[in-house]
Amino acid sequence: MKPRYNIALLLSILFFMMSCEDFVAIDPPNSRVVSDVVFENDVLAITAMNGVYHQLFQLSNFAGGGIHSVTVLGGLSADEFQLHNTLLYPGLPEFYQNQVSIANSHNLSLWSSAYNTIYNANAVLEGLETSQGITAPVKKQLEGEALFVRAFAHFYLVNLFGDVPLITTTDYTANALAFRVSETDVYKQIIQDLTTAQKLLEDTYRDGERTSPNRFTASALLARVYLFLEDWENAEMMASEVIAAHDLYVLEENLNAVFLANNREAIWQISPVGSTGQTYEGNLFILNTPNNFLTPMSLSNTLVHSFDDTDQRFADWVGILPQDADTLYYPYKYKISFTTEAPSEYSTVFRLAELYLIRAEARARQGNIPGAQEDLNHIRGRAGLENTIATTEEALISAVLSEKRREFFAEWGHRWLDLKRTGRAATVLSPVKPNWKPTAVLLPIPEAERSKNPNLTQNEGY
Amino acid sequence: MKLTSLAGFSCWCPIYIALILFSLPVRTHAFPSAFNLQQYVSGTVMDESGLPLPGVNIVIKDRGAGTMSDENGKYTIAVQDTDILIFSFVGFKTEEIPVKGQTSINVQLEEDVTTLNEVTVNAGYYTVRERERTGNISRVTSEELELQPVVNPLQALQGRMPGVSITQNSNIPGASGTIRIRGRNSLRSEGNLPLYIIDGVPVNSSPITSSGGLLSISEGIYPLNTLNLSNIESIEVLKDADATAIYGSRGANGVILITTKKGREGKTDFNLGMYSGAGRISKKLKLLNTPQYLEMRREAFINSGETPTESNAPDLLLWDPDRHTDWQEELLGHTAFITDIQASVSGGNAQTSFLFGGGYHREDMVFPGDFGYQKITGNFNLNHTSANQKFQTTLSVNYGIDNHKSFNDGLFIQKAILLPPHAPSLYHADGTLNWENGTWTNPLSYLKKSQEVDTDNLVTNAVLSYQLAKGLTVKSNLGYTNLHSEELTKNPKSSNNPASESENSSQHRTTKRQSWIVEPQLTYTTTIGNGKLEALIGTTFQKSMTHVRSITGQGYAEESLIGNLAAVDEQNVLFQEDTEYAYTAIFGRIGYQWKRKYFLNLTGRRDGSSRFGPNNRFSNFGAIGGAWIFSEELFIKKKIPFLSFGKFRGSYGTTGSDQIADYGYYDTYRPTRGTGGLYPTGLANPDYSWEVNKKLEFAGELGFFNDRLMFTASWYRNRSSNQLVGYALPAITGFTSIQANLPATVENTGWELELFSRLFQTDDFTWNTSLNISFPKNTLVAFPDIDNSSYANTYKVGASLNSVLLYQSLGVNPETGLYEVADTNTDGRYDFEDRTVVKDLGQKYFGGVQNTIRYKNLSLDFFMEFVGQDGRNTLALFRPPGRNMENQLPGVLNRWTQPGDQAYMQQYSITSTANMAYERAAGSDMAISDASFLRLKTISLSYRIPSVYTEKIGLNDCKIYLHGQNLWTITRYKGPDPQSAPAGSLSYLPPLRTITAGVQLHF
Predict the structure, then answer these.
(1) Do B735 and A116 touch (CB under 8 A)?
(2) What percent of chain B has pLDDT over 70?
(3) Contact residues, chain A, for B580 at CB < 8 Å
(4) Cellular component terms, GO, for this chain's entry (chain B) (predicted)?
(5) Band of the pLDDT at B117, cuts 50, 70, 90?
(6) Three-class SS string for B229-270?
(7) The pTM is what?
(8) At B164, which helix (H) or strand (E)?
(9) Other CB atoms closer than 10 Å to residue B901's CB: what's the count?
């Protein structure tokens, strides 16, 4: 080889060595934002928090209101719905029959989406913690919101599955092998998250819309948590706090307004903006044609028969589809099943009526009969019903719970959770569910999860 | 032939050998007689470069006496003055030299490029003679490919190469198949793609994903469809370390080199070929008739203690029980016509040559309606050499556009099979779709949701080379690829159940892939001692850009407007992703051969890839390969004269894999569909690094009787460690996987055998046959602490990655009438802890047999593909009988009806309990059965019209032929297609049985 070629070769190799490091360093894609950047300024950090709420409005999310949501699956597990066509969703009858298999995809979806939500909340919390560029008020607000969301997801997990892993970091190496934690400890964390959130959040809504939680939202969930833990005193106190916020919240006189976007009864709503024009509840529940596999469920006869003839809620919130054989009744709280217009209804998570009923029960449990009656009568009055005739503690509790069934049917599995916490699931459900077993009060830990985390144990009966 | 044993195949071999021996020309050796010794001639035999050639046969013409050159190419022979010496050596032109009084005759033999042994194979950055290669490279040439009426070039390779397993699950034209070169190396199912190189340009071979529909079943459209099968000169597959290490980080899963046809000097040659034919699905399932179906459904309700209602059983209460339709015939039974036209012209002189060609291919689908696939391809090749031979350039352009028109329903085939036999008629009398008052979904409604994919694909390459000095050449390879695919899915209102609300909408998906590559190289060739040295050093700079965007449009006023985004009410960008991939490398090779017998090949590469975090971007790979052609040794030549060729070779080295998502190491957020939101895309791990694949191979190649019988056996062992996986995580971590390296080791080992023989070889009659068979074995060798990992219940150490863990079936319980599986750990529940039966669904052996028989102008080619494997049987393909409005196989008639029954099928039932029992049985060893098959993949009969006739009409050559594809299959498998059995689904379209007739003309 002649010397000049040697030099050329050497030079080209040197050139290569120098340039290749830079050559393979590429910028992040235009479709994503690197997380360090996300928490550098207020605007992006708020966007990240909004993203958490947007993710809740997913068909596959436990909070979405669709086929995989607590609303549908909790309602089926209890005595709210009946199924008429399961062609498209063969996993639903398992909930209806209280025989959920370990491989049920709806069950896995409930579990996974709740933990994904928790991850998203933890990611915001960790991002805020390490960030330098975010102003103090925004940081405080977002931290409160993220803590609330984390508590919210844990609440449904612990109620549906019993002992569950408690996830407070994004560190997958630890989380991947997490053990189930006792219900008591999960609730402890929920209360801690919510009380901190109460301190951090403002009374007002962040951007005028009721889609990001404010302080009262944290109080509302906390009231429910105390009620579930039978801490009647605190439940009453938290409920009172929300009820007292008259400037923000009043019961909507018009029942048809209760699920409209940003109505005055709503405490926290999940918005379909940007995804669809309607809520998943409206899309799934409203029956236009008999036996359509896209709308597989209708209201159960026992629920339909529990309404008084004069109950305005039956008139406004129950839709009727006449059929040859028998008439089908369906939830008509959300009026829009499909539209391409901008959404006018938001999926409502917390509304004032629940706080009245929480306080009514808490007061009754503490022997405050007139107080309980007053709260209950707010709800009955709005529905066009006479005042309650219940006068004993026992009768009032029972009246509150059956009022709650009629007020909150097809919403967030209220019925299922209430039946379980009051120990009435077996008595109420075993007559209507031939396969009822006491172990059905908890859903199975999804097999896919247990197979990936050897530390997850299974619930009894599965 | 019994497929489960190999006895059938191996018994062929002795027959072949016997045939060969029988057909060998009788050869007698005359030995030099003692008289007439008058003088001696001696000398040296050399090749063109002056290297001595040992083992050259030197015989005296017409006398038969002879000798052989020694180690140093020297010989001495006793001759008479009038004798003529004949020097012959495999791979060289035979030389005749009269003695004429000379006592010393030195001969330089000229290499003969036409003989079989001198076939050169493409090794990517360099070429190597077939006989001299140190690595494992399989080759398929155009003759084996061009007649096949398939769209996807891969499909044409099925069964033809040892160690290369190609599975086409869905036979929708244009759909992607799966190729595995020597098994699955990666735990990630998506990390096993080989590297594709077309004329030196790497091409992204991952399927173009579809937003839904028929194509999404097979992951999408195969990006190489737009390559013209007829324009492929050869396809080489590089398998072992020696061949693949020069591709470094991208060679772990093997390399596929596609070489397109080149122009040749000579008279301008026009080439025209066309064929046309028709195909139908190769298998329809026999299903229950209407009375049997109705009985099943009624019994299911009775067994479950439920009363059928109009809601849950319209098939029992509302539909006409006297109807009967063969839905498979109606919906999948149409004839698919195929047309293919090819034309090319080539020519040139010693300095410049060209080839210019084009093709058109069209085929229909078997569904009712106007669905099909068509492509138009064009190719251009130009070669130029300067007058002084120093400068050379080659330009290749391959361009293709194709159109795939189907519909947006991935489960259509399954639906057609499962539809109750008395389901209502498809149309009303007035021609509109019959929805039977909303009690069913008319299958034709899905066909109205049309989906069209238009793709255009350009692959261009230029090679410039200049000889700087003797033996020293500088060269650069420049490549550019551009693929653009547009998918439009229409969802007209009329395709939806009129009872439910909907509107006209459309979905648009755009995929763009662009890449360029520059590879400057220096090659140097010289002679050192008795050997030849070839050295190569080069660098690679490559960049790829990918753009994927999906848009929906809603609210078209008119169905005819669907697709025109200007006419929508609302337009939503579902997502848009632009990614970039940068890759750079320095690579080199040193090849040395000594005395044409000993070969050593060293290759290496240092790679950098943008897919890894800053700390792990670069890595080194390399291999050593060696070969010994022992048949060149004099003692072998003398002792085993019928052994015409014998070689041992071996190689060892490392390759890598960077087949992971771009940007995986970045912790990122993605915008939500809802406005003003960002959400985390996944868990990030900045520290993952390259997967390492260590390959070891030993092989022997033998040729007998002048290479009329060739035999090759290769043994390989590939171990890939530092497994780069989307490590499966429980959802409690927020996501279900993280990109990470696992200390796990996967081993692929196996034997590959090839046999080729020219059974008969006379002027009028030739019969060539070749057989290849591979015995792959995949094992997860090590996985430290697997029990505490998320893979604890997916893989077992010591078992194959293709294994599935199953319940142990106990059949139908005679008391309950339901399927039962063993509760292995007797904890009273059925879960993964009870799934202890391990079944390997990988291929146990696979291969093919090709026969080419020619008698005068008539020739018959047929190719059989065979695979030995287990697959998921019909129990896993169907759902519990009677539960849904779904038809079943007649096998379900043998069901449990009353306590005490011993039955194959559990009781008909609609309960969840029965469903769960069935699901468990479908996940048990009962659902696995033999899915081996032998398929007559291709057969063609062709006739070459004698030149006396063709010349009269100005043709140089004319061939007419009949070709059959997938004509018959022998299998014990009961499902639609044994090939897709390991994947197990009713949604796959079985292969078409196709017959075509065609003509090829040269003028």
Answers:
(1) yes
(2) 95
(3) 26-27, 29
(4) cell outer membrane
(5) low
(6) HHHEEEEEEECCHHHHHHHHHHCCCCEEEEEECCCCCEEEEE
(7) 0.80
(8) strand B164-167
(9) 14
Give B36 to chain A, closest Cα distance, Å. 54
Q: How far apart are the first and last CA of chain B?
A: 45
pLDDT at A17 over 70: no
Average pLDDT over residues B264-277: 90
- Could you give the strand order of the β-sheet that contains B39-46, starting from the edge strand earlier in sequence? B74-79, B39-46, B107-108
Give the gyration radius of chain B's Cα atoms: 32
CATH no., domain A37-285+341-430+437-452:
1.25.40.390
Backbone torsion region of residue B826, taken as left when φ is above 0, otherwise alpha when ψ lies between -120 and 50, otherwise beta? left
The number of beta carbons lying within 10 Å of the beta carbon of residue A114 is 26
Which tokens sit at A115? Answer: 């933990």
Q: CB neighbours of B182 closer than 8 A, spacing ≥ 6? A: B163, B239, B254, B716, B718, B748, B750, B776
Average pLDDT (A382-409) is 95
- Residue of A108, A113, A106, A176 lying closest to A149 (CA atoms): A113
* CATH of range B138-262+270-289+324-383+390-418+447-802+841-873+931-1002; options 1.20.272.10, 2.60.40.10, 1.25.40.10, 2.40.170.20: 2.40.170.20
A51 contacts B678? CB cut-off 8 A: yes
Mean pLDDT score of chain A, rounded to an integer? 91
For residue A449, what is the nearest residue in chain B, using CA coordinates? Answer: B730
- Chain B interface disruption, residue of A19, A20, A52, most B CBs within 10 A: A20
Q: Where are the domains of chain B?
A: 31-112, 138-262+270-289+324-383+390-418+447-802+841-873+931-1002
B910 conformational bin, left if phi > 0, alpha if psi -120 to 50, beta if neither: alpha
CB distance B3 to B868 below 8 Å:
yes
State the Cα–Cα distance between residues B703 and B27, nearest whole angstrom: 18
Q: Which amino acid is at B891?
A: G
Tell if the CB–CB gap between A84 and B884 is shorter than 8 Å.
Answer: no
Please report residues of B whose CB lies closer than 8 A to that of A36: 667
Q: What is the pLDDT of residues B223-258, one digit of tens each?
A: 888 888 888 999 999 999 999 988 888 888 899 999
Q: How far is it, in rounded angstroms, from Cα B37 to Cα A79?
A: 115
**Left, alpha or beta for B542 (phi > 0: left; psi -120 to 50: alpha)?**
beta
Check whether B36 has a pLDDT greater than 70. Answer: no
Rg of the Cα atoms in chain A: 25
Nearest to B898 by CA among B812, B814, B810: B814
* Percent of chain B predicted with pLDDT > 90: 43
CB contacts, 8 Å: A76 with chain B: none
Per DSSP (E only), the strands in B325-471 are: 336-348, 352-364, 372-385, 391-407, 450-469
Beta strands in B762-855 (DSSP E): 765-782, 803-806, 809-812, 819-821, 837-840, 843-855
The number of C-beta contacts closer than 8 angstroms across A and B is 266
B949: pLDDT strictly greater than 90: no
Helix and strand numbers (H, E) in chain B are 13, 48
Q: How many residues does chain A have?
A: 462
Question: What is d(CA B552, CA B571) in angstroms, rounded to the nearest whole number?
Answer: 6
pLDDT the model gives residue A19: 57
Per DSSP, B732 falls in state G
Which is more confidently placed, B110 or B812? B812
Mapped onto helix, strand or coil, the DSSP state of residue B475 is strand
* Average per-residue pLDDT for chain B: 86
Q: Which range has the top average pLDDT, A151-160, B114-123, B380-389, B418-427?
A: A151-160
Given the structure tokens 């180690």, which residue do they identify? B71
What's the rounded Cα separation, in Å, for the pair B98 and B103? 11
CATH class held by domain B31-112: mainly beta
